[in-house]
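ok trying this again, last paste got cut off
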Amino acid sequence: MDKQTIASPAATPAIGPYSPALAVGDFVFVSGQIALDHEGKIAAIIPPDQTRRALENMRTQLAETGLGMDAVVKTTIFLTNMDDFAAVNEVYAEFFAPPYPARSTVEVSRLPKDVKVEIEAIAIRG
C-alpha cells in the first residue's frame, strides 16, 4: 500500500523520527500534536491553551491534505492529569461539530517536552 508523508510547512515540525501525518489510501493518520509553535517551542502552559494549540496544529496538518476537522473520525487525547478533562473537553468542543469523532482519553505519566496534553487523530477522505 502506498504511504505519503504529510508535513505542512505551516505546521509544527516533527521532534523525532516520525511523520507529522501519514496518508494511506483514504485514511490520514495525524501523529500526536502538542502545544508547539512553528519553531518547535512550547506555545502554551495551561491545559486549555495547550489543547487549543494542539488542535490548531492538527487542523494545519489536515489542511495540507485538503481536509478539515470534519474529516476526523477518531481522536485520542493524552493527559498528564485527568483533573484537566473538563477544561480540555470544553476547548475540544470548539473544534468539532456533531457527529463528533469517536474518542478515547487516557491519563499518562509524562508527555514529550513535558506538556500536559497531546492529541492524535485519524481522518478519512471522501
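PB: full thing came through this time. Residues 5 and 22 are 5 Å apart (CA to CA).
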